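pasting for ref. prot 1 ->
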Amino acid sequence: MPLPPPFVCSACRQSARILRSSNASSKRRYTRPTFAPKPTLDLKHIRQNPGLYKQNCIDRNYTPYAENGWRILELHEQVVAQQREVVELRQRNNVLGKELKKLDGGHGRASMLEEAKVLKGKLAEFEGREKLAQEEMEKLGLELPNLSSLHTPVGDEPAVLGHINGNTPPTGKGHRSHIDIGRDLDLLDFEASATTSGWGFYFLKNEAALLEQVLIQFSLSVALRHGWKILTPPSLIYSHIASATGFLPRDQNGETQIYALAQQTPDTKAASLVLAATAEIPFAGSQANKTLLSTSLPLKVIGPSRCYRAEAGARGVDTKGLYRVHEFTKVEMFAWTSPPSSLQTPSTPDSEFEGGFDTADEEVGQQQTQAEEVFDEMISIQTEILTSLGLHARVLEMPTTDLGASATRKVDIEAFFPSRTGIDDGYGEVTSASICTDYQARRLNTKVKFEGGGGTTTEERASKSGGPRNEGRGVNSGGRNAFAHTVNGTAMAIPRILAALLENGWDEVSRTVVVPGCLRKWMPGGLERIGVGRRG
């Protein structure tokens, strides 16, 4: 059930002001090639609401970028003032041109030619400064995270939305770790992987290796029943595609997120590559520079892939075993949806550099958007999978500090791990679902075409209740194109689900692991227990 919008103070509605100090934002760590999608940011909305974006950055732990909105406003006003001066210079240049045509020669003509030459130099200088200002505004805008949904709690505490398979964790499961179970039943080998690859890698053996494939098939079968289409993605992705989806080589705290590949060519301008941290990245990039028909949406795909996470940070008891690893198999859901209808009139194109602020905030409609419908469907699929596997779990509305750059809203499902009762009461994330509105589509140039001019999709502003909120923003269609909204969600994160199944299915008396009934038809001979006939 959706939570009521949390209270947000009026500080984010502070009146417009210009800050002269520059922020300490980091530079892009890759070169965007000429063939990369050109981002189209809503700089007008940022300029009109710099306090909104500042508060949003503070709420989401993006403090180094909190002043970006004010800096964009400052640069914009400088460009507007400069353009007024350019108009005057061009008017003078036109006058000179007409007068020069009337003069045959003499000192007067020479002085006019000199003045025209000076004017031409000034105009070229203004054009260069305007280009630099535009590039700086784009850079500052790209660093800003998406606005947060009204459903998202402000702070660092999630809200519990419900539970799966009971309201309380099961009792009598003991506290045996999947690491020990895996070793006893010859299912996991961390020592061999430490030799070949280092910390954070693993070998799956025997029934565990089979379960990896079975879990893939099971999760795909559930999604297929709901009408999803299977798509298998590549693992090597261009850096600019990863960045456009919200995955940067380093996050706002400077920690490594994803693996970058060293270039084997002397061409330093070649497009750099990274290993995909999730299939969300190649899925989103597959529709870059494309226009989708609104009648074909939502477009829903699901597919298995190998994922690679640098997972920088301290090692501890909560990272042991399969819980946090560098390489793993995951089945991911991704969807492109139509942007929501707007209650506002079309926005003036940003290139016209209109001045002033739009103070007429409109109430956001209560009708569920297509993205929200798909989002709910994803959570329903996740719930169905975990229910069938017999895993107790809790459903959480994640807070602002836990949202990635692209997400406006995120719901996590945490399963119960008997061996982790001393860490967050034994709960650990196994699935996640996010609405990203037009954040990714604007950076990948993925649009929606509305036939016959049906449906309007203009910029939707935050409601009068205030706060750094985003309930769906697009661009006015009116027969034109609009930016798509994207949604992503985990169907199956193999290592963590496997760990949860081993710990929750462990029978201390028989020293075996019970295989969930929904998986047995894919196991050899319909295997019901792992470890039967083995010595503990």
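and prot 2 ->
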Amino acid sequence: MDPASPLPEPGVQSASLSSTDLCAPAPAASITSGDTVYYRYSTARTWAAAKADCTAMGGRLAVPMSDSGNEAIHSITGGELTYIGLSQLSGQTSTSAGWQTVEGDTPTYLHWASGEPNDGGGHPEAGIQQCARMWADSGYWDDVKCANTSQYVCEFGSTPVSCGGGATCGIASGASTYRCQCPTGQRYDVALQTCIGGPLTIEVNSLNVDQAASGNLFVNFPLKARVGLKGTGSTNSFVVSLGLMQKPSGPNPTQAELESLQSCLVGGTRVTLTGDSSQQYVDITGIVPPECLGGDPQRAANFFVLLDGADEFTTEENKWLVYNEKEATTTVGQRCKTKDPVTGVERTGCVINVTVRPPPGTDVELKQATPDSSVVVLDSEAPPADVNAGAGEAPRPLFIANLTVAAFGRDFDEAGSSTLPGTVDFAYDIIAQPDTGNVGWKRLNANPEALHAPINTVKPGEDLQFDARLHPTPEFRTLTSPGGPWAAATDFQVRACAMVPFPERGDPMVAGQNGTANNCKVFTVRLVRGSHTSNLASSLDVTKTYSNAWGSSSTIQLGLSGGSTNTFNLTGAYTDNDATVSLKGFFGSFDLAQAWGDASATVSPAVASMDTGFKVFGVSLLSYSKSAGSVTYTYDKSYAKEKCLTYTYGVVVASINISGCFSATAGFDMGVTASTTSISAQVRPYVNASLSVSGTLNLTIYKATLSASVTILGFNTSDSDGVNAKLYLVVNSTNPVKLTVAYDADAVFRISTLDGSIDLTIEQLEANWCKKKKWGITFYYVCWGYDTLAEYNLFSYDGYAFTSTLLDRSGSAITLQ
């Protein structure tokens, strides 16, 4: 069996941007400090060779950014001189001038030994010793000739990939990066982190289809099936496809009748068998396409399973058995078993008879509804006393419900198929468990910020994902207040429903006779009552968090989350601030940027500390922490990067190579001043990013051309955006401890995003009957020819802009004791 490239479930990426075959060889020693991982390599190299080697691993020659980072590197040197990532520009006027990191930045942290750097000593700067290495005994730095050889330490933003499954980490001939490499005849599977390929014997031993219980299948409606498999031999990956073949008129059809039977493909996915004869199951979901009916008023059909052993080198010999009524009595056919859809009794031969029928109408299904947290907080109705006058601080919801909705019954390649017959809205009700007083379901207030409007377009068969910010109504507050019937209730059920203004007609098995049985989902939450803190207490906390997403994760979705926590108590004052911009879609998911800035000032011991960092594409650009009697630190970094990768994208059972480039310019403004009496912190990450995609066919079932251009326009582009927090504290007495604090905290998130489109053009293979002999048995199987051409718009969005003020508060003369 030829090795095959991975194919995920339809619309699912086989490996996210964080999964890769880029690797790092096993180090002589390693350590993790904060978000940074350090690997020491004992091979003696020049400074330039050490730098190149770390870059080839996806890291950099280590640059100490703080005392803690320097000590982490020193702890793994093993008593040997070690190169670090600093060098001196030529033509300097002094031995201490012109030093830079491997990225060309001026270092913000230095740890030279006494008298260093000295360029060899006894003379002024002469450009002799222009590279830095760490002394083994003390961890201090020394300048040396760059041509000297030493061991070295590489630095990574996360733990590098460790090759598994028989692969080794190395640089192939003509390559420039370390990759996981497999023995001849095999390839490295990124998602499984193992080598696959080689001979494999496969047995299909079961097939069951959910919708077979009714005996009816409706065009443009979904179905779910499970296929049982066993493999013996080498671990391998291949495509499993599910389809429908027109049922012959009798048990002994003529050759002419067999050749006239029509077929269609419903769904497919990639499966990897380990080859150890263990039982595995593959779940296949799909939409019954119009080709399964072919213009007939109805059609009797059997299911078939097709195993395709290769993508790049597909031939008829690489396709395994088709199960249907004709092959049910063969030796191979008898190995497969299915449950009778009516009685549930297992029977030999995977023959499942169904009738394919036209769509009964349009059906809206709420597929999923889940809370962002199982514990929700009911804040006091009165605004906090410390909110600044006239401030437009965003209200905090009870919780955020994450919803997935789909619409079925329409053919997605017809004009206007995405437009629903009416506008669909969503309602959210809540009820106590138990319902003391028999109050019944009560409505929650959904999206008062008008973040999400009702929907009137859903691409047929596509999952549309969005969230709803749910707030309490005055009636709910009364019910849960002292004296109300729900005053003591802690457990609640929440019901989310799609409110459809037009008649629905769906598969009765799923949607019921009136089409509405699949419009609602119910989940549970636990309620906690919150209250605003008073001006005299033992602690005070000012916290606000934010999260939201735009678009659909089945195509492209951008998410933003962040928050600010500012705490005062008898031990001191603390501020923690963070923000993350993430992108997910058919290509996978990853974080565009992450930033954090934390600081504290404690009473005993009298120490101030800070920790801050910034990542783009998972690469750590800044990681800095320090603890001292007082700390002052500012940083302004602008960074540009383009990341181009190739992935495999599945549309039913199509395998398409997609080359995508993510271009981003990211910046980070930060300032922290901390002392034993005050903290001032400002954190603003900002991002400008774009995505371009081109696709080419990897021939299996479809010919395809994909093109895309999506722009992520801006995040926190104004200087006033981000998080600003100023905290001041005065120790009034130490016995008993009494603090007076004053603070001013604000947090603003601004985003304008998602403008572009993704288009896919597909030529589909048509299935016909052919025959061949295998395992001594002559049987008919599906063979292929190209037929129709279709064009699909997978994603189109004209942008979104949003600004949210999370915090705008100040307080003074607040006493903690």
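The two ends are 75 Å apart (CA to CA).
The chain has a mean pLDDT of 78.
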